[in-house]
Write a structure and sequence with these properties.
The structure is a single chain. The protein is globular. It is built from eleven helices and twelve strands. With 327 residues, it is α+β, with helices and mostly antiparallel strands. The chain starts with a strand and ends with a helix. Helices cover 45% and strands 19% of the residues. The longest helix is centred in the N-terminal third of the chain and has 19 residues. A hairpin with a 6-residue loop joins strand 7 and strand 8. The strands form three sheets. It has a seven-stranded mixed sheet with strand order 2-3-4-11-5-7-8, with helices on both faces.
């Protein structure tokens, strides 16, 4: 069903506050939840808000975040078992602050869970004029190439470049589907597409609940498997677990770079925008095809949804959030 964007925003914020998050914390989380809906990534939208609420109610009360290590260009944050939307937000804020002062800021975070969609953090970085990278490790739900048992997380990896036009942001997971997609399919009583997951016995499955008890296939064969391995090790470097438990002890690693370390910033922005135009102008492989840069689809979808003013949300999800928001 359709719900107004501002109404959905208020609903998520109220539900989070009724779960124990402060108004400021609820605002940080809600901004990303609604942002994902605006990008058309519904699996990371209102459905994820329910997952955050469920995990918060089930888990122990978090401790305050604290900085374990700190240098002019780096830091390590103990997230205190806080929601990763808050921990990653702080890591990005701190990394950008250090990069503004020193040219580079690298921040790792551990003892956290659910860091969300990394394009959100990449947009924050590019608005601050930064080139940025982010990596995240999580529970071993993804099978390495040639295996049917999980050893990697879904392990998102993201890169961002500011430009004179919209930023260039590449954000992808290293698994065939994200865990949040399987969770959403289970909530809605839907099946997974064939060929993306195994059950606990190593047999292929289209049942999302069986997949959540088994393993998701890695994206990109041996190449994707290698990339997932690298991302997991970045998470380990940040302090995350080798084989984290579900929804805890994940790692998040963020780097911000000031582009004027290498060249004039205005010139760099212009060159990135010009290069993006050249990529888009490449001859399509199909007559009615279109060549996009990373983030073009998300930005276009967001413009369309904001112009419409409403979100399409499954009624069952909406009903659950409304009940929580009522207290």
């Amino acid at each position: 069903m359709q719900i107004g964007i501002s109404e959905a925003d208020s609903l998520v914020a109220r539900a989070l506050q009724n779960t124990g998050f402060s108004a400021a914390e609820a605002r940080i989380i809600t901004d990303q939840i609604i942002g994902c809906e605006l990008r058309g990534a519904s699996f990371a939208g209102l459905s994820r808000a329910l997952s955050i609420i469920e995990r918060t109610k089930a888990g122990p009360a978090p401790r305050p975040m604290r900085i374990e290590r700190d240098t002019p260009v780096s830091a390590v944050i103990d997230g205190g078992d806080s929601c990763g939307y808050l921990v990653a937000h702080e890591a990005v804020r701190l990394g950008i602050e250090k990069a503004k002062a020193s040219g580079i800021g690298a921040v790792g975070a551990f003892n956290t869970w659910y860091s969300g969609m990394y394009a959100h953090y990449m947009e924050i970085a590019t608005r601050a004029g930064m080139v940025a990278m982010a990596f995240g490790s999580s529970a071993p739900r993804v099978a390495p190439h040639g295996a049917s048992e999980g050893r990697f997380g879904t392990n998102p990896i993201a890169f961002a470049f500011p430009s004179n036009d919209q930023p260039i942001i590449f954000d992808t997971g290293t698994s065939q589907i994200m865990v949040a997609e399987a969770v959403l399919a289970d909530r809605l009583g839907e099946k997974l597409r064939p060929g993306v997951a195994y059950d606990a016995d190593g047999h292929e499955t289209i049942d999302p609940l069986a997949a959540l008890s088994g393993a998701i296939k890695v994206w990109g064969g041996h190449r994707g498997s290698g990339l997932a391995l690298v991302v997991q090790m970045f998470g380990i470097m940040a302090g995350g677990g080798l084989m984290p438990e579900d929804y805890r002890d994940c790692g998040f690693f963020f780097i911000a770079l000031r582009p004027d370390l290498f060249s004039d910033e205005a010139t760099f922005r212009t060159r990135i925008a010009d290069y993006a135009d050249k990529v888009r102008a490449a001859r399509p492989a199909e007559a009615d095809g279109r060549v996009r840069m990373p983030f073009d689809r998300s930005a276009e979808t967001r413009r369309q949804i904001m112009a419409r003013g409403t979100l399409e949300v499954p009624e069952a999800l909406l009903a659950q959030l409304q009940e929580i928001a009522r207290g």
